[in-house]
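queue> pop job 88
queue> type: inverse folding (structure -> sequence)
queue> payload:
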């Protein structure tokens, strides 16, 4: 009696999952790092407001020589907390969309990265009286937070190969049958 030793080749859906799973993990890990960095940046602002006063000193140094009352440290810190809160919501929404393989995850993540980068660059460059309104470390922290976002977006768009577009559509995985 002979025993058949034929093996079945993996289904297209299994192959598609195998191709996209590692990139999804990389994207979600990068988004997690970005989220954590955003939380740390907000904690640094809170620490500064309560102890070191770097932000208050910078505002005073920017405005006082020109005879102008600087904006309140609480107002500027409130703005930074608002930006940070919106960043946290953006990271969470993008990660949720990627984890659920939503079709709009790629373009939404790209738009969120562009908005975050624009705000980070504004924090570095917008100034009055010849100096930036925010201390340079605050602007650099914003740029650093964009790095994991860039990694995530690049990986999202790179994971798109032949027949993989349906993986992100929320429908069945595998190559397109069209």
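queue> result:
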């Amino acid at each position: 009696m002979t025993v058949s030793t034929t093996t079945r080749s993996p289904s297209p859906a299994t192959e598609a999952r195998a191709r996209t799973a590692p990139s999804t993990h990389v994207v979600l890990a990068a988004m997690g790092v970005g989220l954590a960095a955003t939380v740390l940046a907000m904690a640094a602002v809170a620490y500064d407001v309560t102890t070191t006063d770097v932000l208050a000193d910078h505002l005073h140094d920017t405005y006082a020589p020109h005879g102008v009352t600087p904006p309140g440290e609480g107002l500027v810190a409130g703005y930074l907390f608002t930006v940070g809160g919106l960043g946290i919501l953006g990271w969470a929404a993008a990660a949720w969309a990627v984890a659920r393989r939503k079709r709009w995850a790629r373009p939404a993540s790209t738009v969120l990265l562009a908005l975050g980068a624009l705000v980070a660059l504004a924090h570095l460059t917008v100034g009055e009286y010849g100096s930036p309104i925010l201390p340079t470390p605050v602007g650099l922290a914003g740029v650093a937070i964009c790095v994991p976002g860039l990694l995530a977006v690049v990986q999202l768009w790179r994971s798109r190969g032949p027949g993989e577009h349906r993986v992100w559509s929320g429908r069945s995985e595998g190559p397109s049958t069209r």
